[in-house]
Write a structure and sequence with these properties.
six-stranded parallel β-sheet, Rossmann fold, globular, 6 strands, homodimer, 5,6-Dimethylbenzimidazole Phosphoribosyltransferase, Chain: A, domain 1
């Protein structure tokens, strides 16, 4: 993040024909974009690409979701056929959509827009031991880094995280509990819709995952401990999204985080490389309680807050026009001088 | 608002390939759009047109704003030259921008995109007596109705309110206090940036306006009392925006409300014709404390909440892609049946 470009962006904001500070959070977004690009005005964050990382979860066997595991693969087919909400929102904001299979439990037929980067046929059950081996976590991380690098190499100037994986809010809750030190009960939510009994069971499963994997107590510090924790209670899509964030940061391109899956993955990315969070924009805040905890820990303010709890990248996509508007102000808006408007602070 | 189309929209939402309710507030927006159009799926809210109603305020003489009154006319020139933030946001979301002079204190040179509907050269000082005569308020209301009707007649399927008028947050605070019965201190804010001394003076001015105009105590009921209150402490742009809302409702087209100026005008519109509020979408919540009070009174939930305090229609424009996305879901997204995705609730 370039402090010079950020300072220049703040100064430029103050010369534009609007009361100082009157664009609120959007002024911070524009300044952040300038810092990321190392340029003022920052380039518009287009073209934009959504990557939906899909994987399955061994913990599904514990009965933490009312949905059958097959829905992960069925939804991948829905994405590639253009029928999911993420497709509608991507069309709305002009984003491309790439689905990345990093760990779906079945073999998927090839389809346009589907990348096969399968590390395993789903994770092991995180409530009985590590969900992934260290090698698997590293491979998924690397896959995410590579997808980000490839999307930037092909011309994209903004990335959006997406996810698909039945039971993945359980892994997210475990990651958030581990990386923030908060109780499982405070960060576990109802995901795509569990009843009271299943909800309490889900909290128990998250608590057991931390105990079984020796992750109670100390928050992991440093890259090695972070990857170990990610492997122990994360999902393959969480590891890939963490890598995607690191890849965006390495390419100096902003990455809009979607919901609780991305938030938990970003905690892992932050523990691996704290500077990467400077490249993140929090697209939205989901209805999952753990998401607010993750965002607060990361120091990110969400742009959209409409009780979405769908995932797929939908909340991140909704934020893209807002991020673009923030950048566009820096290009299009006249200054007090150029427009001949009186400035109360001049 | 068509209850049949709304029920149909709710049912359709539940068949789409997403957990029921997982689009949160967007599902309510889609249902509302279906009710407004009397059709499911509702048409996409495009093309979209922003109308910026500009006027001056006699109360400016009381020193309630740090900006000179001339800035109203200067900003009108900035809009027609394409240099304001509203222009940048309109370009971002593909909206047309029309400026309507309903009461700027000086004669404005003709310009493309500028409609002259001048009712007066600004209002009288609301802290010394009525800001407008009843005729002036009615004329400004009618101008707003007519602008809405014309924009719909020329093919627009969504309207956005905008405003420009130095000192207009003072009139907004007075209107909100009158129509909600809340104290002036609770609904008066710092507008485009006033210091502590000017802020306390502004509250005094609002209190004086209510007292001088006999509006303390009872909240006006019925159309006649509403127009009288609007004339007493409103601005010409407030009256025009109230008319714009009524015109959108008459044309059965959704209108996205911008910030505190629109919120206070919508309170007047609601008092004149309560059903009109069903056609309103609250674009955003501004940093002005009175805006939250107005939205709560109207029962509207804002879509964007980013501490904007600029006006011009900027917050309304930012919400347009979100409203469109909500409608697009109803057109583009596959059902569980059509996509072959298992439905946990089937």
């Amino acid at each position: 993040i370039d402090p010079g470009a950020m300072a220049q962006a703040r100064e430029h904001q103050d010369r534009l024909t609007k009361p100082r500070g009157s664009l609120g959070v959007l002024e911070d977004v524009a300044v952040r974009l300038a810092g990321i690009a190392g340029a003022c005005p920052p380039p518009l964050p287009t073209p934009v690409a959504l990557a939906v990382f899909a994987a399955d979860h061994g913990v599904h066997a514990q009965g933490v979701s009312p949905w059958p595991q097959e829905v992960t693969a069925q939804m991948v087919a829905n994405f590639t056929a253009g029928g999911a909400v993420a497709n509608a929102f991507a069309a709305q904001v002009g984003a491309s959509l790439t689905v990345v299979d990093v760990g779906v439990a079945s073999d998927l037929p090839p389809a346009p827009g589907l990348l096969s980067r399968k590390v395993a046929y789903g994770t092991a059950d995180l409530s009985e031991g590590p969900a992934m081996t260290g090698e698997q976590a590293a491979e998924a991380l690397a896959a995410g880094v590579r997808v980000a690098a490839d999307l930037v190499a092909s011309g994209n100037r903004c990335l959006v995280t997406g996810d698909m994986g039945i039971a993945n809010t359980t892994a997210s809750a475990a990651l958030i509990s581990v990386f923030t030190g908060r109780d499982a009960a405070a960060v576990t939510g109802r995901g795509t819709g569990v009843d009271d009994a299943m909800y309490h069971h889900k909290i128990d499963v998250v608590q057991r995952a931390l105990r079984v994997n020796g992750l109670e107590g100390a928050v992991p510090e440093g890259p090695e401990a972070a990857v170990r924790a990610l492997a122990a209670v994360g999902g393959l899509e969480h590891a890939a999204i963490a890598g995607f964030v690191l890849g965006a940061a390495a390419a100096r391109v902003p990455v809009i985080l979607d919901g609780v899956i991305a938030g938990s993955a970003a905690l892992a990315a932050a523990a691996i490389a704290p500077d990467a969070i400077g490249y993140c924009v929090a697209g939205h805040r989901s209805a999952e309680p753990g998401h607010a905890v993750a965002l607060a820990h990361l120091g990110l303010r969400p742009l959209v807050d409409l009780e979405l709890r769908l995932g797929e990248g939908t909340g991140g996509l909704l934020a893209h026009p807002i991020v673009t508007a923030a950048a566009r102000v820096m290009h299009d808006v006249a200054t007090f001088d150029s427009a001949g408007v009186a400035d109360k602070d001049a």
